[in-house]
Amino acid sequence: MSATLGTLIKQLEPGWSIGLFENLDQAGLESSSPWNNAGTGHSALCELNYTAAAADGSVDPAKAIGINEQFQVTRQFYSHLVQNKQVGDASTFINPLPHMSFVIGDEHADYLKTRYEALKPHALFNEIEHTEDLDTIKSWTPLVANGRDGSQRVAASRVASGTDVDFGSLTRQMTENLAATGVEVNFGHKVKGIKRDGAGWTLTVKNNATKAKRTVNAKFVFVGAGGGALGLLQKAGIEEIKGFGGFPVSGQFLRCTDETVIDQHHAKVYGQASVGAPPMSVPHLDTRFVNGKRSLMFGPYAGFSTNFLKTSSLWDLPLSIRPHNIIPMLAVGKDNMSLTAYLIKEVLKSRAKKDDALREYFPEATGEKWELITAGQRVQVIKKDAKKGGALQFGTEVITSADGTISGLLGASPGASTATPIMIGLLGRCFPKQFSGWESKLKEIIPSYGVKLNENPSLYAEVRAETDKVLKLA
Predict the structure, then answer these.
(1) N or C, which end of the chain has less CB nearby within 10 Å?
(2) pTM over 0.85
(3) Is 412 helix (H, G, I), strand (E, B) or coil?
């Protein structure tokens, strides 16, 4: 998010002075790391939590369409970066990869058919395919079909034109380009404090290597610190952060170490979440492209830790509690006992049980060919709720001060895939006087700017063809 915002501002206002401060020694090592996130290029093609069934069994496609619209904007931004040589070859961060949903049993199969029928008429989903034929599924993803009981009802939906995105690589390339174009990039620098200073802000920054501290004055501050954003926005003391809390969820993945197995799978296969599971715990058997090399992973297995980042302190959760957010946090704890039970069950799950979960999606899997790795931390948003006292939110929340001089991002999914439209929206809120003058440039960067592609199939076809060509996705 920070690299995207910096890149946009640099193009809209090249004369502005920009500084970036990153606690770690390289960009994209926390939430953006390919081993710390799902990396799907979230476009709601296969993620079933964006199309939950209603009580009557119907499926509303609106949320999936909205997320796909956002990713189309992001794709155009990527295309612009590649065309203007602000990042390297497209294959260094984005690759074509089919997206597939796979379910087991009558109830889930009926739901997936209903979902397919709800999405298929829409322009953004007109390529979706659906089948309950095991041989067809085998042609799509052999590992999922081989060794499966033929009497078991299964169903799959697929969009062959999906993508895999290495957000770590993309973040590093955008950051390198910012540094090359005059942005002051500071790695190994931790922001320790944010205080209002007249119409702007004074930041206290610590050099991790020398322990020296300095102050930096800024007219505008964006806090794109993943799980660390809540604490920094609380330190800023803005009214808009009051009532917000965070609930951290950790996770693990199984990563395949056998190249012969990896070579047999070329897709992202998403299933249904367990009862009580948070959305980012939806099981998926994923081909990944990391540093140009194809990999295979399965998971995630949810867990719990009180730190808000992989590299931060176990005191993060208790230190985030404030008088203004304790009631929402207690209310969420009371109303989400199923989530608590799920996390306890996941934490206690043995390696053998983890392997059993893998075999639901890859029946012939053998555990010795898979290593267990730790995934990234996700801090789910807790906010005030007039009726319940507090609500747990699984989306992305942008917090902006009333005067627009500071803004930050809380939450997770769909996250990085929707970074471009989220940051454009932020620019509109924080720089209303300048924004109208930027729109012609935004139109150059995003050819469909201001238009809903799902409602304009001809423009969608035109934009897709161009971005596919530049990003080598066709």
Answers:
(1) C
(2) yes
(3) coil
Q: Distance from CA of residue 200 to its chain's centroid?
A: 30
Report the C-alpha gap between 57 and 199 in whole angstroms. Answer: 52
**Side-chain half-sphere of 33: how many Cα atoms within 13 Å?**
17
Could you give the number of structural domains in the chain? Answer: 1
Both structure tokens of 98? 């089919």
Distance set, CA 244 to CA 232, 393, 403 (Å):
12, 11, 19
Q: Token match 């471009």: residue?
A: 420
| Lookup: tokens for 340 | 């608590």
In a domain, 196, yes or no: no
Task: Look at residues 233, 176, 243 and name the one whose alpha carbon lies nearest to residue 393.
Answer: 243
Any residues with CB less than 8 A from the CB of 31 and at least 6 apart, and which?
A: 37, 226, 227, 376, 377, 378, 412, 415, 416
Gap between the Cα atoms of 267 and 281, Å rounded: 18
Q: Which domain holds residue 95?
A: 2-187+220-470
Q: Which of 90, 106, 147 is nearest to 466 (CA)?
A: 90
- Could you tell me if residue 200 is inside a domain? no
- The answer as to whether 149 is a domain residue is yes
Residues 242-297 have pLDDT tens digits of 999 999 988 889 999 999 999 999 999 999 877 666 666 789 999 999 988 999 99
Q: Is residue 204 part of a domain?
A: no
What is d(CA 363, CA 264) in angstroms, rounded to the nearest whole number? 14
d(C-alpha 183, C-alpha 173), whole Å: 14
